What does this fold into?
Amino acid sequence: MSTAIDGAVLTKTKAMRRVNDKLRPESKRMYRALGAERREQLGEYFIVDLTRANIAEAHVELGERARQLGVIKDWEKVTA
It folds into this structure.
């Protein structure tokens, strides 16, 4: 059970949804790479620029990017 001191637990799916909500006005979207070869090329998470149909950023760390965008707070932590 989480308390205010321990912090709130956020699933990766929920964190990614928040990131994508924030990226939507910029016509960007975060995806999770499927398959070992894709993960090696792009990292576990990557961002696509939908207007240009290309990879905007590869090897994105989900929790770090979510914090940079301000979609998760300091007391929240991303788990599996």
